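Reviewers of the previous submission asked for a worked example of the structure-prediction workflow described in the proposal, so we include one complete record here. The input consisted solely of the amino acid sequence. No template or homolog information was supplied to the procedure at any stage.
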Amino acid sequence: MGQVVEFVETPAERFEGLRDYPWAPRYVEVDPSGMRMHYVEAGPADGPVVLLLHGEPSWSYLYRHMIPVFAESGHRVVAPDLIGFGRSSKPTKVTDHSYAAHVAWVRGFLEALELTDITLFAQDWGSLIGLRLVAETDRFARVAIGNGFLPKADKPEISLKTIGNIAAFMGWRTFARFTPRFVCSKVLQMGTGRTLKADELHAYDAPFPDRRFLAGPRAMPQLVPLTPKDPARADQLAAWEKLERWDKPFLTLFSTGDPIMRGLDRVLQKAIPGTQGQPHQRVRGGHFLQEDSGPELAAHVIQLIQRG
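From that input alone, the workflow returned the following structure tokens.
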């Protein structure tokens, strides 16, 4: 983290007039290089905190249908863009992205905003980062995971139950690394059940004017720990030791149409004590379930908070 990172900033005009995304940009510096993490915030400043962490290759725009539900019910909802995504700073080299760096950047964000007693909703890479911070800090009161997981960096089990997950993910990983033209909106549409409108597709492409801005989307699939030789292995196992004792409320809200994450909600329910007795749900949608069932997801998380 001490090494100077070369980065670019997406011009602000790329984000003007986005559909259903009226919130003013806010920024927190999270790296000695000067990189900033963008976030939106809504709801009362003294309300219960809800943190929304997105995944790859989306940004906080993914939560535009959930943010108003939380805010209108009296919650302080905070939705950042990961470094390399959305309106946040973007390292220009794939090698400047690492799992450890992303965890550190989000940790710095939480510390800068002094967020505590957090309810986390996370999906995709938001889960890989968020669950590490749940295990490594005392800032979280409850967790809801939608189409997400924390891999242990074990050798993937080749079985009838996991072969679909592995095949789908490895295909995506290869595509992200080698495709000559990476169009984020096409990825979002492939992982969403409903047909996105033209201006919604435009919003998902807005952060990435040219290939210099795409190091994050290309890097993230390569960073998922898959084998015991992965540099994140020790941190993953340490996090799981904590999660296997986590007895605070933990809710799974997976979708019915995700070929990559399907079935991993049951793994979480079996391993984490806080899942016991929770009304776990499966909602309509693809991998990006926020696009298909956003308000319903928000309602389930609010009910989780109200249960205490």
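Residues 7-306 form a domain with the Rossmann fold fold (CATH 3.40.50.1820). We consider this example representative of the routine output the project will generate in years two and three.
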